[in-house]
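Pipeline run #58 for the internal structure catalog. This entry was flagged by the ingest filter as a single-chain record with no existing model, so it goes straight to prediction. Upstream metadata was stripped on purpose; only the residue string is passed forward. Reviewer on rotation: M.T. Logging verbosity set to normal.
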Amino acid sequence: MKLLKHLNNTILAVSLSLLGSGFVISSSYASDHLRYCERNGQCITPGNVGVGFAIGYGQRSSSLVDVHDMDIFILPELYYYGRHFFFDNGTAGWRIDPSTNVEWSVVARVNPERSFFDEHYLGMWLESPFQSGNSDAVHLPSFTDPEDDPVGGSSGGQGVSVRSVSEREYSIDLGFQFDTNIESWHVRGQLFNDALSRHKGYSANVSLVRNYYLESSIFSVRMAAAYKSEKLIDYYYGISFEESPSHHYEAEASWQPSVSLSWQKPLSGHWRLLGIYQYLQLGNGISNSPLVHSDSVTTWFLGVGYRF
């Protein structure tokens, strides 16, 4: 029963997370994959709706006090690309001029920070099992059951946890995104602001992705860095005097570098093997919080994917 409950929570958290990072190849750089698409017929064309899933096993480590690592059993995929409007596994946007070499878009998503504080939160998708690593990858942790033993922290978290502070509300990020290709690298930049004035902060992200074609497989390397403002970090990871006088903490702005590796190998029909690994280094503004017991998060998944 516990396995079924955990599986249901995982599916709910991942499948309902609708405004995170885009995970599927957009038309701005689809030509880079033409040779591969001709061989496996898995390319995305404008105007098409894509639905898929992956089943297997993986895990994401937790950085929060009183939160266990999350087991991952299934990952969904959903995307749509028109000439201008797109929805890509969590990011909704409008491409201003799709015909240019540098493609600008107005984009919106649910702020991903909230996903660390509620196992049923509509946070961000895990990295799509169907793309070649051309976009961001963020993952969901899971809370322990109330009857489970709490997870102690190494950053002074004894006596305070995400369960003992006030609820952190979700917010909607609204901003701009650009995509371009520089030689063999796909470059993406994003600038987001808090559209609902929950935390009144902002964030900026930049990522570089390169795909390596190895006969019938694709191996992708992604390097990224995210800057999160002081107001954003303090809202989610700070602790007020009212919440805990002895653990009062005012968080600072943080940089978060990350490295991701992904691999996929097409099988017969619509099936493919896939593997994902990500290492995320948390900034000091987050890792110094009494709510946090680790300064990094690792995620991995190995399984079989299917696209309809």
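catalog note: Helices lie at 2-15, 34-40, 230-237, 284-287.
catalog note: Residues 2-307 form a domain with the Outer membrane phospholipase (ompla); Chain C fold (CATH 2.40.230).
status: ready for reviewer M.T.
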